[in-house]
Amino acid sequence: MGTSSHTNSSFLTVLLQDHIGGLQVTPFPSKSLDPCYPIHGGLVVNLGDLLQLISNDKFKSITHRVVAKTVGPRISVACFLRPESENSQKLFGPIKELLLEENLQIYKETTMKAFLYRKFSLGLGGISALEHFKM
Fold first, then answer.
1. CATH number for position 57
2. Predicted TM-score (pTM) of this structure
3. CB 26 within 8 A of CB 33
4. Residue 15 and residue 94: Cα distance in Å, rounded?
5. Cα–Cα distance, 81 to 47 (Å, whole number)
6. What domain range is 118 assigned to?
7. Structure confidence by residue, pLDDT tens digits, 34-51
8. Which InterPro entries did the record assign (predicted)?
9. DSSP 8-class letter at 13
10. Which helix (H) or strand (E) covers residue 111, if one does?
11. Phi, psi (5° rounding) for residue 129?
């Protein structure tokens, strides 16, 4: 089983993949998906959409996908780091200290609930929820 290309809605995703691998990433500024070869005992850290939003594009969310391999079973463990979303009215937006005259605010503030609703309504397929929150 694999996934189509997408970004993660979290701040960070930490991934432990086995020796079989299957993760492909789009290294900036490239548009192509390249293999992310597993390193024994190594962790892969993906930057997510929320980190891109609060950093005002200083850090970019990584587009990636997982492809199914034809050899043996594949095991990977992912940990998604994001705040609690249900019923929270806390607003997330660009960090004020990062905003300057030459670095204007790119994104509107949003709640996690609204952000995740937009993200999941778009589904996978490389479409970013961040576009909806641009100023």
1. 2.60.120.330
2. 0.85
3. yes
4. 26
5. 10
6. 3-133
7. 998 988 888 999 999 999
8. IPNS-like_FE2OG_OXY, IPNS-like_sf, Iron_ascorbate_oxido_reductase, Oxoglu/Fe-dep_dioxygenase_dom
9. E
10. strand 110-111
11. -70, -20
